[in-house]
Amino acid sequence: MNINYAAFSGAVEQALEAAGDAAGLRTMLDTAVHLTEQALDNGSSRKQAALIACHAGCSACCNLNVAVLLPEAITIAAFLSGVEDQPAFVPLMTKIEKYARYLYGVDNEERIRLRIPCAFLDHRGWCLIHPIRPIMCRSIGATDPDQCRKSLEITCLDNEEPVMLNLTQKSLYDEAFIQVAAALDRQGLDSRSMELHTAVQAFRECPERVGEFFNGKRIQL
Ligand code: SF4
Question: Could you give the CA distance from residue 13 to residue 177 in angstroms, rounded to a whole number?
Fold first, then answer.
């Protein structure tokens, strides 16, 4: 793994400075993801990548709380406003609203116990926002989906089962998340993270919050 974080944060910050709307924030996030994927795409990590069992359609770990930065929530909310009338997305809109209320303050352990899958999964177990899925979703690279499922079932019984992950992928995306948050901080923007459904619904129900975010206001729920 070889990544120059000075260059990484410079590129992210430059994209952030140029961003004045949701599309600009998406470009900034695309930059962060692209640089992270580039770092992953080297000789040794490619070998590890071959072992990764995660693939489109596997939703074994999609019932954990996902923390998102506000630009991620704004990007997803903007994407949804463009597709909300499409039949595949109509049920999703009420689901997000419901989940945002239901999951507010629910911790991971309780979420696993309640077995609440992510609202963004469709009936086939596909992520409806896969191209713009959160950084934290991208950080997970498990070698065995059955191990993920078993681990979550056992956690319901208050036991723990280790899950083998690609740690290079995990640490690169964790660091990307930290770098984007730091860039937001330096720009005087709200750098907090929130639960995915809560954050997306906050910008869906009140699009004026996007302007408040760019004005450096702290987003109030
Ligand atoms: S956003 Fe997509 S990848 Fe992330 S937890 Fe939800 S369904 Fe899974």
Answer: 13
**Burial classification of residue 52, based on how many CB atoms lie within 10 Å of its CB (0-12 exposed, 13-18 middle, 19 or more buried):** middle
Question: Under a CB-based contact definition with an 8 Å cutoff, are residues 177 and 183 in contact?
Answer: no
3 state DSSP class of 136: helix
pLDDT in tens, 104-163: 888 888 887 888 899 999 988 889 999 999 999 998 876 676 766 666 665 555 566 666
Q: Which atom of ligand 1 is nearest to the CA of 133?
A: 1
Domain boundaries, the chain: 5-214
* Residue 193 bridge partners (DSSP): 69
- CB 121 within 8 Å of CB 64: no
Residue with CA at minimum distance from ligand 1 atom 1: 133
**What is the residue with the minimal CA distance to atom 2 of ligand 1?**
127
**Amino acid (one-letter) located at 210:** V
- The model carries a pTM of 0.89
Q: What is the pLDDT of residues 158-191, one digit of tens each?
A: 566 666 667 888 889 999 999 999 999 999 999 9
